[in-house]
Amino acid sequence: MKSSIQIQKIIDQSLTAATRAIGEEDAKQILQAYGIPVVSEVKAPSPAAAGQAAVRVGFPVVLKGVGAGIMHKTEAGLVKVGLKSEAEVIAAAARMADKAQGKIESFLVQPQIQGQRELVAGMFRDALFGPVIMFGLGGIFTEALKDTVFKVAPLTPADIDAMIGEIRSQKLLGAFRGQAAVDRQALRDALMGLSRLALEYPAIKEIDINPLIIQPDGRLMAVDALMVTGEVSPSKDKRPEIDRSVLRSCYYPRSVVFVGASGTISKWGHMIPTNLFNRDFKGKVYLVNPKGGIVIGHEAYRSVRDIDDEIDLAVITIPAAKVMEQIPLLKEKKVKAMLLISSGFRETGAEGRQLEDEVVAAAREAGILIFGPNTMGICNPHIDFFCCGVHVYPRPGSTSLVSQSGNMGTQLLAFAEQQDIGIRAFSGSGNEAMVTIEDYMEAFEIDELTRTVVLYIESIKDGRRFFESARRVSKKKPVVVLKGGRTSEGGMAASSHTGALASDFRIFEAACRQAGIIQVKQPMDLLDLSAVFSSLPLPKGNRVAIMTLGGGWGVVATDLCVEHGLSIPKLSEDIVARMDQILPDYWSRANPVDIVGEIDPTIPMTAVEALLKWDGCDAVIHLGIQGRRILMDKLLRSVARTDPAYPQKDLDQMRELMLAMETQYIHHVVALTEKYGKPVLGVSLLSDEVSKTLYRVEGCKYKGVFFPSPERAVKALAGMCRYREWLEVNG
Description:
- With 731 residues, this protein is α/β, with parallel strands linked by helices.
- Among the domains are: 244-450, NAD(P)-binding Rossmann-like Domain (Rossmann fold), CATH 3.40.50; 536-730, Succinyl-CoA synthetase domains (Rossmann fold, 3-Layer(aba) Sandwich).
- Strands 1, 6, 7, 8, 9, 10 and 11 form a 7-stranded antiparallel beta sheet that branches. Strands 14-15-13-12-16-17-18 form a 7-stranded mixed beta sheet, with helices on both faces.
- Helix 21 (628-642) runs antiparallel to helix 22.
């Protein structure tokens, strides 16, 4: 077993070699020092010596030809297994020597380890997240089946248990074909050892243990290992810490100046000020235009310098080339932050990148925080502060939304307004020249009004900080992420199976899962999850009771639940007896509960409460109860046109009665949510222009939640369950 001094010496020697590889013998001794069981072996300098070593080891044996220039022995034909005599070993070694043409420096003779199950474990250093540990199905199936999982180091015991639980080949870890279950503690120790090794020796770039054999008695044995080293990259210059008090104050400005105010309706200098003037923002607003005069009905100053009042936030919409000249003026006015709407910076190429760097350097020296550039703006509905290009006004709420795409962010704001989903704050982060996605996340971590953090991300600049921040924030409030560019794979040139199996998105996805982030795949999922997190209690488990107005939707919802990891428990005798008192004799007597199209408004109200009382479920999804008024309205319109026996007054009363019944049902569901502490998610039969996702009930903590499709309801509930499961282990 190697000491730390010996390990460092081996690493230093490998750094001078052309392949930057650590030989198998040394690699396995390093692994052994970190608690990873490795096969015993004898090193032999020649074919004859290998034959003699095999006699001492005992047959059958495995023979390997090793050398500094040999990376993948199996692919090169330098591994022979099942050799049963000294003569076979000598002959095999001689053939290897001829084939390798002088590359073999010695031979390794190992006892042949028995075991039908092979695992793989390893490590590589990701450009964004640093050391990443890999575990999965090994041997010849590693790259064919790709049944592997990744976690960012350092690993916690919970991370390791999650890794073991996430591989698809779970049955291989239990008792299998007369062989014992794997020694799970030894497996945990091996993965933890890899994590420690990765952190303590940053010059080790890749580690590959393949195969890691499960022996018939369940013991683990590493029979092959590869390590690749490289120079330790100097850590990237960390961005200077931003002043979070300034960041927060920008959402509560007392005075705002628009530099580049314009009277032309299509320009940013017109769109954003008119947006703010259109609201009841209580702060002072100043306009700057070099021509002065009246702009948007207000006096325009020729320069920031001409304004006598103090300025908290400057909104810049002038061309990129003219931004630099504003910085001395803003410094003179002691402006602490600028919202840099202007484009023409890093997103345009090398010249724009240089200009952005120069502007950032000058602003930092002047003590000015930059939002953007190339941003759609920010808003805080709690003070009617809408400083962005799109004129939509979601109500004040608890969802903080940050988007690296301005268009995506503003579309989500528009949907939030339409569906009555409350927004705590919004920021289009733009180029993130100073304020990054991590800064926003950490600011919202301590913001008491924020209950859910929602992010649209296309790239991150500091993966390690993103991971650590998200993991910390997730323990306090849900973080929901949509990642753009999921299908592009990284161009990593990897020397090991571990590195070759990784892609940029696989590692990002693994880091998110490990940090407790709820990942979604569609833009609408972002706000669907924000709606349920802000409006419903977390489920205590994943058991779902389904109530439906018709059988088909119940079948669809059941399939969706199973596909998303939710459980549909069988109804207990007690709950069946309760439902027998409510429903006709021909009801399904199963979960989903089909209330068979009954129009009596008391039936769904009574049935949904019976399900919530049932201790066999953790959440209820009800389908088709809400939205029947739309069909009724269509019926009443037809009657009004075709049957003169019905006065319009009577038809209007029927329409009002149906609306009152749906309102009463919503209030009933919200009251039951509070009473039983279980989430209730609705799916509307139909929706129209007045339908919403959220319905508020005065005096109630929770809200009525209704989606237009079973899929959206199930995905939202599944996200809540994933978050609750993560909190149970990591919270």
